[in-house]
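Incident log, support desk, overnight shift.

02:14 A customer reports that sequence design results differ from what the structure should imply. Their input is reproduced verbatim below. On-call engineer (initials T.W.) acknowledged and began investigating.
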């Protein structure tokens, strides 16, 4: 190829790339409701890798800023988090590779991020295996209550209805029930349960949702471990703690017998830079013949694996349409959306990432 031909080809390629990039950026649309009468909730996946490295904290705060900025436009009613709030619950000497923040710093990092929503949006946070023991569920002790309590966010305090049993008998938000009145007539309960709930906790949960005063509520169950990457309920895990109930046991003992648990959200699973390894979704009938939608969503190993940037800022927002049946799911990254040069990456549009389902 002579020089003139090479220059013409290079110019053509540059113009094509510029035009394609411009079209991709112009195609970006800020998240919005498809129906102005809808309401939404936000699902934050396991944030442990954002808080264990100082360098990753900015991404988590970008996510919280996005929630703050879009509370009104998306008519957000509450924010849920799937657990593993920290990488190590009680570790003083991180090695710099697994983490460069000790446990006290990690708990401070996650609490300071979510406390930015205080007074703006209620949030309910599950506890995961990393939130217990020394490093990961060697025993059932967590610093959760030192850093999160209902009174810290007046909107949480206003919604709190029930508090479940804790090992030491103290009041705790680890097992709790919150009530929300959505723009549609149906009232919602969000029930959050500890990592691999003990039998006592499962029994408490079952009795709680069966109370006559909650007979006409729809219940969202939030817990850390539930579905695997093949969308099958998890049977067992290799942690040292005993008296546990993972996904299959929770479904059989609590979800299936219940008449009003309609949604289950969880996290926990993941594979380095493979999003499909972070996801699970299934629908089953409960004892009342109603469909229970079960969704696992995580992103912690996206953006460089287990020691990467923490998850590329991915979150989900779910739009509940005014028909009371249709729910639209969008997977979105405020981290990519913040810059015009990366906005074309801000949505995941695969069928497993952007879809809708029905509540019957």
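02:41 Re-run completed on a clean worker. Output:
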């Amino acid at each position: 190829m002579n020089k003139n031909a090479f220059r013409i080809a290079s110019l053509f390629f540059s113009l094509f790339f510029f035009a394609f990039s411009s079209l991709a950026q112009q195609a970006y649309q800020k998240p919005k409701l498809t129906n102005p009468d809808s309401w939404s909730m936000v699902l934050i996946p396991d944030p442990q890798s954002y808080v264990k490295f100082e360098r990753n904290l900015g991404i988590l705060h970008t996510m919280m800023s996005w929630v703050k900025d879009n509370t009104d436009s998306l008519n957000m009613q509450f924010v849920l988090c799937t657990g593993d709030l920290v990488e190590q619950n009680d570790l003083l000497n991180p090695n710099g590779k697994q983490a460069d923040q000790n446990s006290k710093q990690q708990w401070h990092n996650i609490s300071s991020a979510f406390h930015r929503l205080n007074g703006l949006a209620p949030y309910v946070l599950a506890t995961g295996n990393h939130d217990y023991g020394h490093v990961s569920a060697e025993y059932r002790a967590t610093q959760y209550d030192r850093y999160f309590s209902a009174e810290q966010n007046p909107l949480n305090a206003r919604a709190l209805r029930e508090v479940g049993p804790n090992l030491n008998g103290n009041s705790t938000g680890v097992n709790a029930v919150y009530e929300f009145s959505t723009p549609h007539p149906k009232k919602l309960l969000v029930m959050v349960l500890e990592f691999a709930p003990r039998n006592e906790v499962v029994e408490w949960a079952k009795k709680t949702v069966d109370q006559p005063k909650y007979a006409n509520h729809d219940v969202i169950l939030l817990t850390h471990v539930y579905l695997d990457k093949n969308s099958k309920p998890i049977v067992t895990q290799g942690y040292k703690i005993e008296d546990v109930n993972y996904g299959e046991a929770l479904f059989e003992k609590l979800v299936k017998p219940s008449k009003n648990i309609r949604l289950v959200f969880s996290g926990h699973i993941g594979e380095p830079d493979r999003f499909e390894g972070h996801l699970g979704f299934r629908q089953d009938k409960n004892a009342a013949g109603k469909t229970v939608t079960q969704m696992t969503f995580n992103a912690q190993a996206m953006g460089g694996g287990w020691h990467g940037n923490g998850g590329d800022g991915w979150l989900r927002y779910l739009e509940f349409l005014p028909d009371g049946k249709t729910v639209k799911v969008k997977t979105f990254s405020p981290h990519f959306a913040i810059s015009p040069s990366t906005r074309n990456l801000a949505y995941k549009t695969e069928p497993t990432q952007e879809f809708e389902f029905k509540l019957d």
